[in-house]
């Protein structure tokens, strides 16, 4: 069930108009950067960035409550102290843990 939810959320993120789009995907994502939700509340920290074949960020592993969660790189937008996610903290925490 969690994988189904993750697939639905990922599909929604990839088509959501709130993301910064392909131009942002060319911007490097910093490991160790803070991640907040759209309201500015702390979500977690970037632990790892997985780049696609073209070298652009594809997925970002974010540590939330000591558990790694995988987000599409397009789900993160630059914020003053790191990155803001288009997902809420609860939505990210409901994603299946990363391996």
Q: In angstroms, what separates the terminal alpha carbons?
A: 17 Å
CATH topology term: SH3 type barrels
CATH class: Mainly Beta
- What structural class do the secondary elements suggest? alpha+beta
Main sheet attributes: strand count, strand direction, barrel closure:
6 strands, mixed
CATH architecture assignment name? Roll
Strand order of the largest sheet: 4-3-2-1-6-5
| Number of H/I helices | 3
Give the helix level as a range of percent.
10-25%
Shape: globular
Annotated CATH homologous superfamily: PRC-barrel domain
Count every beta strand, where a strand is a DSSP E run of 2 or more residues.
6
Radius of gyration of CA atoms, rounded to a whole number: 12 Å
Strand percent estimate: 35-45%
Summed up, the domain count is 1
Low-confidence stretches: 12-25
Series of H and E elements:
HHEEEEEEH
Overall pLDDT score: 77
């Amino acid at each position: 069930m969690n994988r189904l939810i993750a697939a639905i959320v990922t599909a929604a993120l990839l088509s959501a108009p709130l993301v910064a789009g392909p131009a942002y995907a060319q911007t490097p994502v910093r490991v160790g950067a803070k991640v907040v939700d759209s309201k500015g509340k702390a979500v977690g920290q970037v632990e790892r960035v997985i780049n696609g074949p073209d070298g652009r960020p594809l997925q970002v592993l974010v540590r939330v409550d000591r558990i790694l969660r995988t987000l599409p790189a397009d789900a993160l937008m630059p914020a003053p102290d790191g990155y803001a996610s288009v997902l809420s903290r609860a939505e990210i925490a409901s994603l299946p843990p990363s391996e």
